[in-house]
Amino acid sequence: MSLVNIVGMVVLDNPTSFQNPFQFEVTFECLSPLQDDLEWTVTYVGSAEDSSKDQILDEVMVGPVPVGTNKFVLQADPPDAKSIGDNDVLGVTVVLVGCSYMEQEFCRVGYYVNNEYSEPFDEEQGVPMPLDISKVNRTILADKPRVTRFPIDWNKKDVSGQENDGGVEHNGVTMQQDGNVMDKGVSSGDDMMGSPVPSMQTTTPTTGSITPGQEGREEFGGAVEPMS
Question: Contact 228/146 with Cβ under 8 angstroms?
């Protein structure tokens, strides 16, 4: 049984400019005391054919995590367009939000992302090159996330064999015992923007991936299911 379940994820500031940060309001429940913090990562798939263009936009440690329902805003810088290349910036791709415990990923949520040129252009000649990234808009298909769950060892001990020191702040994110998170850009209470997605169903991971209509490369890994 998973000791941590993501019960809601809201995409903020969407649609927006390609150059703006990604923002996800995450709500999760912790069912039992944890010995270590949770690591959250945001990964951008830069190319459908070249995995070397994937970019880890941010890695954040959150904790100590109190038992109960918790909420925080996960913010990550936009991808480096120069590392992707003009030909791969536009079109459909994927952004992944993953969560790990003691270096074991147990949940990954993926969203389709559509990047479009914001100004009219001659379709026969294509978008003006070199691409002006300031004229590219990003839209996340927030109502169609895909979630993958992985079984892990929740009783794994850390390298030092020591438990968490019981502090209340880590990497600028403060977890409150009432289940709220309060810090820079972090929401508290019931003032969620938009509607949270319903609870996710657990599924047994298998090897494989899904293909987003032949557009983009979707490396969710394991068994993939929609949030229902």
Answer: no
For the purposes of burial, counting CB atoms within 10 Å of the CB of 188, is it exposed (0-12), middle (13-18) or buried (19 or more)?
Answer: middle
- Per the confidence metrics, is the pTM higher than 0.90? no
Q: Render pLDDT for 42-65 as a digit per residue (tens, 0 to 9).
A: 999 998 788 888 999 999 999 999
Q: Tell me, what DSSP letter sits at residue 163?
A: P
CA distance 9 to 119: 31
Asked if 138 and 16 count as a contact pair (C-beta separation under 8 A), the reply is yes
Question: Is residue 153 classed exposed, middle or buried when 0-12, 13-18 and 19+ CB atoms within 10 A define those classes?
Answer: exposed
Q: How far is CA 93 from CA 44, 48, 70, 214, in A?
A: 8, 7, 29, 11
Length of the chain: 228
Token reading at 174: 């403060």
Q: Which residues contact 83 (CB under 8 A, 6 or more apart)?
A: 46, 53, 55
For residue 18, what pLDDT band results from cuts at 50, 70 and 90?
Answer: very high
Neighbour tally for 7: CB within 10 Å: 16
Query: Strand, helix or coil at 140?
Result: strand
Q: What letter represents residue 44's amino acid?
A: Y
C-alpha torsion 47→52→58→61, nearest 10: 130
